[in-house]
Amino acid sequence: MNSRLTSLIRKEFIQILRDPRTLILVLVIPVMQLFLLGYAATNDVRNVPLAVYNLDNSPASRQLLDAYRAADYFELAFDAGSEQELRDLIDSGKARAGLIIPPDYTLKLQSGETAHVAFVLDGSDPTAASTALSAARLIGQQQGVRILEERLQRRGQSIGNTSPLEVHTQVWYNPDLVNAYFMIPGVIGMILFALTSILTATAIVRERERGTIEQLIVTPIRSWELIVGKMLPYTILALLNTLEVLAIGSWWFDVPIRGDLWLILGASALFLLTSLGIGLFASSIANTQQEAMLTVWMTLLPALFLSGFFFPLEAMPKVLQWISYLIPLRYYLVIIRSLLLKGVGAEALQTEIFALAVFGVGIMTAAALRFRKRLD
């Protein structure tokens, strides 16, 4: 790192320390968000992606699947070929629940015994899991009543006390469905996205408002050095905020940290390319700090509501779900929640990591080119 870049970074840190409002924004607001959003309410969902491992493959088992499909709570999205494949689908977040039908399902029903099926849930999102848990049990009970009625009609059999079908539910990753386990990882994504984009945009525009940007331009500092020097301090502060939320979330809310810490920080740094790029782009089209703030908020609000931070994506209309694929925060929230609660590795998150890399490099490149052109 050359002396010009070092001096610029040092100057930026001094400017941050001399501005108490910036320090309050960086250090206090994340803690306030953590405690406020850690107790947020939840909503019901529909069309939860369901993976099915059907070892019976009989008309009776297909009737059970039809019951789950008709209830509108579940979408039979995957046919798993093994229990490991079913687990991999849930680990990667592609499926939010799994149904395992044993090979003796039909035999048990025909012999008058109780047939047992297993229903597993991804508890990392308590909103979706609580709804799916209740729905799974209710559908199993209704299917059991229907089977009893068919027996009564065919054989004149009286309805006994034992149900012919029993659904055993099991919640993975968050057995108690603690909502803070879902919200606190999301707070990390919100902090990284909101603070870094806002602070980067306003810091550069502030130089323009004060007339000091021209002084920097006439110095031997190159454009890329100016960009890096302005952004690196906020990148460091954002990563410190990440560690701060992780520490408080684990200590106060007992949120588990099951994934590799370095992978968490690496994914966070990758996501910062997007938020920093948005801040840089906003600074290149705004003339005042107020304009920069409004420009960032135009991207911030859709990101918060369409990323799965406040509301589960399964509860949204299909059109909004498609639009959410254009929101980088969506992919980061999947990554951070999977790393903290599921403890998966990078191989289970390849799609999300690749998407973040594409968004980050693309947005940062476009913003840097426009910023350099604006300086020229």
Compact description:
This protein is α/β, with parallel strands linked by helices. It is built from 15 helices and five strands.
How is the topology of this model organized?
Layout: H1 3-17, H2 20-27, H3 29-37, E1 48-54, H4 59-70, E2 74-79, H5 83-91, E3 97-101, H6 105-110, E4 115-122, H7 126-155, E5 165-172, H8 180-210, H9 212-218, H10 223-252, H11 261-285, H12 289-306, H13 318-324, H14 328-342, H15 350-375
Parallel strand pairs: 1-2, 1-3, 4-5
Antiparallel strand pairs: 3-4
Helix pairs in contact: 1-10, 3-8, 8-10, 8-11, 8-12, 8-14, 10-11, 11-12, 11-14, 11-15, 14-15
The description of the largest β-sheet is: 5 strands, mixed
Number of helical segments? 15
Poorly predicted regions: none
Widest β-sheet, arrangement of strands? 2-1-3-4-5
Tell me the structural class: alpha/beta
Residue-averaged pLDDT: 78
In sequence order, what are the helices and strands, one letter per element? HHHEHEHEHEHEHHHHHHHH
Shape: elongated
Radius of gyration in whole Å, from Cα?
Answer: 26 Å
CA(first)-CA(last) distance: 24 Å
Helix content: 55-70%
Number of domains: 2
Number of strands: 5
Question: What fraction strand?
Answer: 5-15%
General description of the model:
This protein is α/β, with parallel strands linked by helices. The protein has 2 domains: about 5-40 and about 180-375, no CATH class; about 50-170, abc type-2 transporter like domain (abc type-2 transporter like fold, 3-Layer(aba) Sandwich). Helices cover about 65% and strands about 10% of the residues. It is built from 15 helices and 5 strands. The protein has helices spanning about 5-15, 20-25, 30-35, 60-70, 85-90, 105-110, 125-155, 180-210, 210-220, 225-250, 260-285, 290-305, 320-325, 330-340, 350-375; strands spanning about 50-55, 75-80, 95-100, 115-120, 165-170. It has a 5-stranded mixed β-sheet with strand order 2-1-3-4-5, with helices on both faces. α8 (about 180-210) packs parallel to α11. The two termini are about 25 Å apart. The mean pLDDT is about 80.
